[in-house]
From TrEMBL:
<feature type="domain" description="Peptidase M16 N-terminal">
    <location>
        <begin position="36"/>
        <end position="157"/>
    </location>
</feature>
<feature type="domain" description="Peptidase M16 C-terminal">
    <location>
        <begin position="190"/>
        <end position="367"/>
    </location>
</feature>
<dbReference type="Pfam" id="PF00675">
    <property type="entry name" value="Peptidase_M16"/>
</dbReference>
<feature type="signal peptide">
    <location>
        <begin position="1"/>
        <end position="22"/>
    </location>
</feature>
<dbReference type="InterPro" id="IPR011249">
    <property type="entry name" value="Metalloenz_LuxS/M16"/>
</dbReference>
<dbReference type="GO" id="GO:0008237">
    <property type="term" value="F:metallopeptidase activity"/>
</dbReference>
<dbReference type="Pfam" id="PF05193">
    <property type="entry name" value="Peptidase_M16_C"/>
</dbReference>
<keyword id="KW-0645">Protease</keyword>
<keyword id="KW-0862">Zinc</keyword>
<dbReference type="InterPro" id="IPR011765">
    <property type="entry name" value="Pept_M16_N"/>
</dbReference>
<dbReference type="GO" id="GO:0046872">
    <property type="term" value="F:metal ion binding"/>
</dbReference>
<keyword id="KW-0378">Hydrolase</keyword>
<dbReference type="InterPro" id="IPR050626">
    <property type="entry name" value="Peptidase_M16"/>
</dbReference>
<comment type="similarity">
    <text>Belongs to the peptidase M16 family.</text>
</comment>
<keyword id="KW-0732">Signal</keyword>
<protein>
    <submittedName>
        <fullName>Predicted Zn-dependent peptidase</fullName>
    </submittedName>
</protein>
<keyword id="KW-0482">Metalloprotease</keyword>
């Protein structure tokens, strides 16, 4: 009887996950090229206004890295109609919150307001796009802000340089090879004219997606969008980069010394396909098998049973052009870094030679059903997902249909993809070590 109840509950959950999370949206494009997505949800008096620009670290000049992240900060400085330092005051005094973030592929700005302040959110984002003030005072101010962020999050943070050290070794041609935060020397050397040219090229309506999600009326919102964003002039066409890397055919070995750590780390990293490829979804599932939760293979083996690792994780970092599959481990006690590599290789080899059990597969599917439900649980999350699927994947419908990709992945797919991408001759092995007193940081 108990098993029958569990089966019935599972069936009910799967039915709920497949239907209850349907996200309805309206999608259209203004004459100036601005893509617009509207999602109406009147269950709470809250609205998210957001703009995603198709510009990230990969769009930068190799001698001027850090521009995209710099603009994440710079475009809060003020506009022709919003005074310097007034942006955050306006948002907070009207009951809202806001933020922005940058990746290698895009930059995202958003506000969350009470729904009666929708027009304010649209006006502010249109101001950012149409009337930004880019002057030397603002550049100097934000230069110091970015430097402090780098000191806090990278330079003085334990293991803060790991991803940057991985990327510069995995890529030789593609601009994923530099860190998103970029080089402070490059920012110091840049002229005001270079910053203005970067803005004029990338922060234009035909390189952006506007999403409004929450307690809105579709017709009224369209009218406001037309009023505020329609007059903005279209920019020159933005051509995204298309740089191919030669396959990695021999294991790359590297060493980095971090003055902020006492425990060494081992990193195994593999270059993987674009997040738009089905295999990238399979790699997500492989990560879950290896290290998602205390019952996962690597955690149970190396942390719980054998006491060889303080921490172990496998992460699929999905990006628009390529991805990185990264395994990170901290050894316990006298365990060597080479031992962790061997133990991880043993578990990957099992995935390459044996099908995971049906029980493990069922658990995996339940995990991804849960992720699907949670990803669409807030209006702000829905806004971000709609922009991401439209801009980076080229398919907004994925907000509802992506779960079908995961459902279609078989145990055989997991075995095949592990064999295709996770081989010793296709990877970087990076020893991330403490800095000795007499050593210089590499």
């Amino acid at each position: 009887m108990t098993n029958k109840i569990k089966l019935a509950a599972s069936a009910l959950f799967l039915c709920f996950a497949g239907t209850a999370q349907e996200v309805e949206f309206t999608e259209y494009t203004l004459d100036n090229g601005l893509d617009v997505i509207l999602h109406q949800d009147n269950s709470a008096p809250v609205v998210t206004t957001s703009v995603m620009y198709h510009v990230g670290a990969k769009n930068e000049d190799p001698e001027r890295t850090g521009f995209a992240h710099f603009f994440e900060h710079l475009l809060f400085e003020g506009t022709e109609n919003i005074g310097k330092g007034e942006w955050f005051k306006i948002v907070s005094s009207n009951g809202g919150s806001n933020n922005a973030n940058t990746t290698d592929d895009r930059t995202y700005y958003y506000e969350i307001f009470p729904s009666n302040q929708l027009e304010l959110g649209l006006w502010m984002e249109s101001e950012r796009m149409m009337h930004p003030i880019i002057d030397q005072k603002g550049v100097d101010t934000q230069n110091e802000v970015v430097k402090e962020e780098k000191r806090l999050r990278v330079d003085n943070a334990p293991y803060g340089n790991i991803l940057a050290e991985v990327k510069k070794r995995l890529y030789t041609k593609h601009p994923y090879r530099w860190a998103t935060i970029g080089s402070m020397e490059h920012l110091d050397a840049a002229t005001l004219e270079e910053f203005r040219a970067f803005n004029d090229k990338y922060y234009v309506p035909n390189n952006a997606t506007l999403v409004v999600a929450g307690d809105i009326d579709i017709a009224e919102t369209k009218k406001m969008i037309s009023d505020y964003f329609g007059p903005i002039e279209k920019g020159e066409p933005v051509e995204q980069i298309n740089i191919q890397e030669a396959p990695i055919t021999e294991e790359i070995r590297g060493t980095y010394h971090d003055p902020n750590i006492q425990i060494p780390a081992i990193v195994m990293a593999y270059r993987t396909p674009s997040m738009k490829e089905r295999d990238a979804y399979v790699l997500d599932m492989i990560s879950a098998v290896l290290s998602d939760g205390k019952s996962s293979r690597l955690y149970k083996k190396l942390v719980d049973d054998q006491k060889q690792a303080l921490q172990i994780g496998a992460f699929n970092i999905a990006q628009e052009d390529y991805g990185q599959y990264v395994v990170f481990g901290l050894p316990m006690g006298e365990t060597s870094l080479d031992t962790l590599v061997s133990e991880v290789d043993e578990e990957i080899k099992k995935l390459q030679t044996e099908l995971i059990s049906q029980r493990e597969y069922d658990k995996l599917q339940n995990q991804f059903e849960n992720r699907f439900v949670n990803s669409n649980s807030s209006v702000a999350g829905i806004a971000s997902s709609l922009a991401t699927y439209q801009m980076l994947y080229g398919d907004t419908d994925l907000i509802n249909e992506e779960i079908e990709i995961y459902r279609s992945i078989t145990r055989e797919d997991i075995k095949r993809v592990a064999n295709k991408y996770l081989n010793p001759n296709q990877r970087l092995v990076l020893e991330y070590l403490p800095k000795k007193d007499s050593e210089e940081v590499n």
